[in-house]
Amino acid sequence: MDIKKNIESIRNDFPILSTSVNGNKLVYLDNAATSQTPNCVIDSISDYYKNLNSNIHRGVHFLSQKATEIYEETRFKFKKHLNANSTKEIIFTSGTTHSINLVANGFNNSLKAGDEIIVSSLEHHSNIVPWQMLCEKTGATMKVIPMNQEGELNLNAYEDMLSKKTKIVFVNHVSNALGTVNPIKFIIDKAHSFSAKVLIDGAQAIPHFKVDVNDLNADFYVFSAHKFCGPTGVGILYAKQSILEDFPPYQGGGEMIDEVTFEKTTYAELPNKFEPGTPNIAGVIASGIALDYINGIGLDNIKKYEDELLSYATQKLKTIKNLKIYGTSQNKTSVISFNIGDIHAYDIGSIIDNLGIAVRTGHHCAQPIMDYYKIPGTIRVSFCFYNNFDEIDKLVNALNRAVKMLS
Ligand code: PLP
């Protein structure tokens, strides 16, 4: 699909885009925080509760069987999209954060003092804190791959820190704060040459381009549905089957068991072993509809269009005096983080919010990146395929007005 030609009909799929804020039409540029929801996803949630609501995997009755069927078909959709080997490798969670905690928990018994784990300096807090907690529990130590001014990882330093002691490497595919696309194939291959496992946080990649976990040979790949037009409260964890078989369960409860007695419990087969309790059934099914929706537009088309938005917005923003962009890698997604002179990001964010423009200000849950640049935070604009060029012009005009008011 040619997005430029069809932009109006795409925008009509998103009812929230016609919202007004203080009499101005909403310009939503905070897509890296969460993307908006198209009618087909909203309808899927409503349809579930109108026509399908029941518990899955446990009822003999019509509704339960139908809901189970659609829930499991959704698992198959994600397996196919990611090119995983089996639906046993797809676990539904409540989000990227939950998935990372689940994986970190899996290393509780195997990691020990003297072992090392490696993180990148470009991570979201949710790909730092669970691993710090793991280090506290096990005595393992964490090393950090440094970054440069462009917001890229220092791969020589990474290679130098790998050793037989390295057990896990965890890196995001795309930085949420800067948009940098990390060379994860290289990172994975190097880690594997030391038999270390690799977790890729794909929260900011899945909405923007096609990912093939088989080709990447990632051990774990995690992301959230709400970043690609799905609902909040659904995460997808891809993990190699052999690793999940060896992992202990993360949480105990119904559905994840084979047999329970007061003396002993045996666990269910994959993927149920990692999905205790009643899952977010409506949300999972709607996430599958969101996946169909973005695939209907085509991820290659999305990438091409968003690259154009990125390049137009970068040029336009650079016309603003004293505007400094953080994250200037050649390989980045449609995210621009910046400050203007020494004006506080929050002040600019508040003024342009009054004009109906939604951006994110602050540290973007990536404080180590802000520390590196010695700044408290940035203004971050992040585009989705339903944004248009007119919205970028409105952003730049609003920023100019804000600067005038604050200087
Ligand atoms: N990782 C990255 C790169 C993110 O951008 C985010 C959310 O902004 C997360 C992890 C956490 O995702 P969630 O809040 O959906 O668990």
Condensed summary:
By secondary structure, the protein is an alpha/beta fold. The chain is 40% helix and 17% strand.
The assembly state of the depicted protein chains is single chain
The number of helices is 14
> Compounds present?
pyridoxal-5'-phosphate
Mean pLDDT level: 97
Runs in which pLDDT lies below 50 for 5 or more consecutive residues are: none
- Could you tell me the strand content as a percent range? 15-25%
> How many beta-strand runs?
17
Report the principal-axis shape: globular
For the sheet with most strands, the description reads: 7 strands, mixed
Q: Spatial order of the strands in the main sheet? A: 4-10-9-8-7-5-6
Radius of gyration: 22 Å
Give a verbal description of the structure.
There is one protein chain. The protein has 407 residues and is of the alpha/beta class. The protein is built from 14 helices and 17 strands. The strands form 5 sheets. A 7-stranded mixed sheet has the order 4-10-9-8-7-5-6, sandwiched between helices. A 4-stranded antiparallel sheet has the order 13-14-17-16, with helices on one face. α8 links the parallel β8 (197-201) and β9. 45% of the residues are buried. Bound molecules: pyridoxal-5'-phosphate. Residues 95-97, 124, 126-127, 172, 176, 201, 203-204, 224 line the site of pyridoxal-5'-phosphate.
